Q: What sequence folds into this?
């Protein structure tokens, strides 16, 4: 039997568009325009990873104030909802006793909060937040920890990801990455690491039905 691991932001939950606006807002508070445009470059990274990226990209950025302002914007404007086909796929996997994990670059507290907003915590046999590993995506650490918590081998895992960093992380973990693009298309280099690419999550049901 196979197991499934989901990324959260932009893959399972529609949360990334408000983050773009939040980063633009927080950057503009410091006179820096267009910080939200960097989101595709840091998707999948944990807080340490994207903070370092932004500090290198924008040397004048006060990262602590930026994080506070962006966080406030998100808390005031985010309405958490599933990506298209997500809940249908979760129900199918649960009904067929497939082990399911979530591995997100967001902090564990944020992950739990967002999942509670859509009543989805009960779907998951394991949940891993980005603050639980030292090396964020594209390092494989977070996916390897998810497989360990599921009690399965990495080669048995299919990973749903929207970002280049996440897809590389899954591939580096010895898993089978399935790309589900959100705010940015996957480039040709990233596509080399894919097991498959789909338009929305429930398209995978037809494939999984043949494996159960």
A:
């Amino acid at each position: 039997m196979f197991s499934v691991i989901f990324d959260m932001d932009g893959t399972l939950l529609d949360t990334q568009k408000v983050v773009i606006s939040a980063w633009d807002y927080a950057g503009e508070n410091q006179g820096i325009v267009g910080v939200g445009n960097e989101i595709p470059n840091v998707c999948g990274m944990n807080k340490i990873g994207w903070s370092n990226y932004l500090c290198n990209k924008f040397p004048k950025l006060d990262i602590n104030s930026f994080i506070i302002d962006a966080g406030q914007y998100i808390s005031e404007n985010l309405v958490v909802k599933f990506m298209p086909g997500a809940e249908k796929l979760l129900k199918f996997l649960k009904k067929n006793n497939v082990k399911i994990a979530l591995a997100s670059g967001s902090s564990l507290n944020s992950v739990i909060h967002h999942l509670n907003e859509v009543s989805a915590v009960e779907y998951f046999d394991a949940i891993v937040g980005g603050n639980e590993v030292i090396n964020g995506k594209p390092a494989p650490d977070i996916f390897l920890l998810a497989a360990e918590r599921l009690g399965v081998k990495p080669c048995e895992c299919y990973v749903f990801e929207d970002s280049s960093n996440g897809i590389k992380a899954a591939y580096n973990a010895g898993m089978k990455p399935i790309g589900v693009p959100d705010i940015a298309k996957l480039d040709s280099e990233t596509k080399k690491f894919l097991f498959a690419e789909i338009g929305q999550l429930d398209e995978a049901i037809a494939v999984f039905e043949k494996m159960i």
Notes: The first strand starts at residue 3 and ends at 6. The chain has a mean pLDDT of 95.
